[in-house]
Write a structure and sequence with these properties.
Elements lengths: L19 H14 L11 H4 L11 H9 L9
Length: about 80
Amino acid sequence: KGIIAESEMPRSEMDAPIRREEMTMIMVRCVEGKGETLYGNATGVSRTLGDYYKTGEYYRTYLIKAYSNGLIKTLYS
């Protein structure tokens, strides 16, 4: 369906458990692919989400959008 690029997750890894950052990318892309507009408010997210700085930079926009729109909740590490 084009949600995940082969360079992001090779087919050989498709049956493996995914990380939270990968999950947020998939969720945001699915929702936006259905025509919804998700907005991200980065204000305070780095303090609110315990895993923000553990999340790869590539995935941070997805994490912010997922949290700002109620798709995920806080995770304290």
